[in-house]
TrEMBL record:
Belongs to the DsbB family. BdbC subfamily. Gene3D superfamilies: DsbB-like. Coiled coil: none annotated. This is Disulfide formation protein. It is a multi-pass membrane protein. The gene is bdbC. One of its GO terms (cellular component) is membrane. It comes from Parageobacillus caldoxylosilyticus NBRC 107762. It holds the Pfam family DsbB. The chain crosses the membrane at residues 7-29, 35-53, 60-79, 105-129. Keywords: Chaperone, Disulfide bond, Electron transport, Membrane, Oxidoreductase, Redox-active center, Transmembrane, Transmembrane helix, Transport. HAMAP family: BdbC.
Length: 133
């Protein structure tokens, strides 16, 4: 079995289930940037599962664009929450503000940070997979 592929898939599953838990169980309404991050993360759970089933190490070619863009979106989102100056550039104009923080564990762990960590883990695993190929 390919350990980086397994670890990336487990990370994508946890991130997807965590996202669904926050919205469907706890009833947190996702903001615009949260939706973009979901659009980038949810397919990864499926793509990585298929690649794991087929033992396809070339999946990194398809996963890396999603995970790298996800890192960019989630880091911008986290910046909106934690850097007051960036609130001037907030793109969420209706509904839930992107600078809002449903959770703030230990004073710095928010939902976008959790997404950033997941996208980063997946990116690192795909880079390892690419190096192994």
């Amino acid at each position: 079995m390919n350990k980086p592929l397994i670890f990336a898939w487990i990370t994508a599953i946890i991130a997807t289930l965590g996202s669904l838990f926050f919205s469907e169980v706890i009833h947190f309404v996702p903001c615009t940037l949260c939706w973009y991050q979901r659009i980038l993360m949810y397919p990864l759970a499926i793509l990585l599962a298929i690649a794991l089933y087929r033992n396809d190490p070339a999946i990194y070619k398809y996963v890396l664009p999603f995970s790298i863009i996800g890192m960019i979106v989630s880091s911008y989102h986290y910046g909106l929450q934690k850097i007051p100056f960036l609130k001037k550039f907030e793109m969420c104009t209706s509904g839930v503000p992107c600078s809002g923080q449903y959770i703030n564990w230990l004073g710095f762990i928010t939902i976008p940070l959790l997404a950033f960590i997941a996208f980063t883990i997946i990116t690192i695993m795909m880079l390892i997979l690419r190096k192994q190929s």
